[in-house]
Amino acid sequence: MQGWFLQSPKLLSDKHRDKAAAWQLQLTKPAGSLGRLETLAVELAAMQHKLHPHVQKVDICVFAADQGVCAEGVSAFPQSVTSQMIANFVGGGAAISVLAKSLGANLSVVNLGTVFESVSHASIFDRTIASQSGNIVKQPAMTEEQLQTALMQGKEALTRARKSGCELFIAGEMGIGNTTTTTALLVKLLHLPVTDLVGSGTGLNAKGVAHKVEVIERALARHQQAILPLDILRCLGGFELAALVGSYIAAAQAGIPVLVDGFICTTAALLACRVNPGVEAWLILAHASAEPGHKAAAQALNKVPLLDFQLRLGEASGAALAVPLLRLACDLHNNMATFAEAGVADKA
Ligand SMILES: O=C(O)c1ccc[n+]([C@@H]2O[C@H](COP(=O)([O-])O)[C@@H](O)[C@H]2O)c1
Ligand SMILES: Cc1cc2nc[nH]c2cc1C
């Protein structure tokens, strides 16, 4: 029996892509003059199997988990911030809380396991797998069972989003230490040197980054035998990374467009595509993270991010920032007058 994550994603509609592209040519502007706003609307039409796409109903789900590798001192912030930020997300004070409210988007958090006490709230789904993932320099991040559970939590988040009529799905993550796990994972996927991909995460100084490189090298040496994408994820990832992967695959299978956030999310998206290549067509990269490895991950996906605002926050903030662009692309596509309607002369 194949795992659910290997089932084919929904196909985009070539018919609606062609119709939407032809519609764009009728709107009162020189062909192509709205640049990527045009191609975005056309791709959304193909994804939604509609001539007139909409992304009003946006669902944002932040997957949170603690990382065992924090014991190696790889972050500028204490591990307790993971659970404290979970409370802040639902309390309304985090960047993503403000952005989601402003966008009228639904925001939920899935707690996959933190070392510190976490609050309970209607928008927090407590799905604790363990208090933290395994320390990747000493052991695999997850057991096979934990990996399957985390992947499934991603799928379940998507099922909830779908029930509320979601037209655009955004996943985010929160996990102190997860730029270390993500960098290790990306090195394995891309076969690039650690020093090309590593960054300061939440704000390490040069000494801290040098130590982080050493920790990542040790983790890579420990997990040399991991070759297949899901094995790399199990050995070097974390619960939130696995849930991200599961959610992206499930979104593609359900035919829901995905706006991908920064470094961690883009690496998870790349992994989802390595597991199930049809996922790629459903992904829109929202922004270029300031974390150096993001560029390589985006290039490996052969995608150009919409924005470059030097963000390096995570928690879905960069993806939320790009929602107005998608909405405006749809508005223009759906509401501009045609040359015939406006009595404007078309190209000679
Ligand atoms: O997504 C990004 O581009 C990004 C870049 C740097 C840091 N982060 C966030 O910062 C945390 C991980 O950073 P660190 O330094 O603790 O590994 C984690 O909660 C991420 O959401 C996120
Ligand atoms: C405060 C803080 C907020 C975050 N949000 C996502 N990652 C984060 C890391 C820190 C340290």
Automatic annotation (TrEMBL):
Task: Output the Gene Ontology terms for molecular function.
Answer: nicotinate-nucleotide-dimethylbenzimidazole phosphoribosyltransferase activity
Q: In which pathway does it act?
A: Nucleoside biosynthesis; alpha-ribazole biosynthesis; alpha-ribazole from 5,6-dimethylbenzimidazole: step 1/2
Q: Name one Pfam family in it.
A: DBI_PRT
Transmembrane intervals = none
Q: Which reaction does it catalyse?
A: 5,6-dimethylbenzimidazole + nicotinate beta-D-ribonucleotide = alpha-ribazole 5'-phosphate + nicotinate + H(+)
Superkingdom per UniProt: Bacteria
Q: Which UniProt keywords apply?
A: Cobalamin biosynthesis, Glycosyltransferase, Transferase
Read off the Gene3D superfamilies from this record.
Answer: 1.10.1610.10, 3.40.50.10210
Catalytic machinery residues: 315 (proton acceptor)
Provide the E.C. number(s) assigned to this enzyme. 2.4.2.21
InterPro entries the UniProt entry points to: Nict_dMeBzImd_PRibTrfase (IPR003200), Nict_dMeBzImd_PRibTrfase_bact (IPR017846), Nict_dMeBzImd_PRibTrfase_N (IPR023195), Nict_dMeBzImd_PRibTrfase_sf (IPR036087)
The entry's function note states: Catalyzes the synthesis of alpha-ribazole-5'-phosphate from nicotinate mononucleotide (NAMN) and 5,6-dimethylbenzimidazole (DMB).
Question: What family classification does the UniProt entry report for this protein?
Answer: Belongs to the CobT family.
Q: What is this protein called?
A: Nicotinate-nucleotide--dimethylbenzimidazole phosphoribosyltransferase
Specify the species.
Simiduia curdlanivorans
What is the name of the gene encoding this protein? cobT
